[in-house]
Amino acid sequence: MTSNSQRQSIGIVLFDGDEEVRAWVRSVHERARLTTSVCTGALVLADAGLLKGRRATIDWSDFDELLGVDGSIEARPEARFADEGDISPRRESRPGSTWPST
């Protein structure tokens, strides 16, 4: 078990949609206590297969695209975040907001 000081923090990931990147996203998720995304980052999680059969949210204008990536996702357009325990996609980020908030 690693201590918090030994954990590497990953802040921003640029995604080009190839299988190597999808595999990396899955491997990071397997080692993380919590995997999260903001706004269209849910598309990355969905493309990596991490939202299969789970609740997820995204900006309302991107729901069709999200469900096009994986139709098994339980879309929650009214929610600001979707808490699935080890994964929590968030619709938006607001200055001064707390994580997660309703």
Q: Can I get a quick summary?
A:
The protein is built from 3 helices and 4 strands, in the order αβαβαββ.
SS field, number of helical segments: 3
- The total strand number stands at 4
Order of helices and strands: HEHEHEE
Structural class: alpha/beta
* Assigned CATH superfamily: Class I glutamine amidotransferase (GATase) domain
The percentage of residues in β strands lies in: 5-15%
Main beta sheet: 2 strands, parallel
Based on Cα principal axes, name the global outline: globular
Strand order of the largest sheet: 1-4
Radius of gyration: 14 Å
**Helical percent range?**
25-40%
CATH class category? Alpha Beta
Q: What does the average pLDDT come to?
A: 78
CATH architecture: 3-Layer(aba) Sandwich
Low-confidence stretches: none
Output the CATH topology.
Rossmann fold
Instruction: State the end-to-end CA separation.
Output: 32 Å
**Number of folding domains?**
1
Structure characterization notes:
The protein is built from three helices and four strands; from the N terminus they run H-E-H-E-H-E-E. It has 102 residues and is α/β, with parallel strands linked by helices. It has a single domain (18-90), classed as Class I glutamine amidotransferase (GATase) domain (Rossmann fold, 3-Layer(aba) Sandwich), CATH 3.40.50. It has a two-stranded parallel ribbon. A two-stranded parallel ribbon has the order 2-3. It is globular.
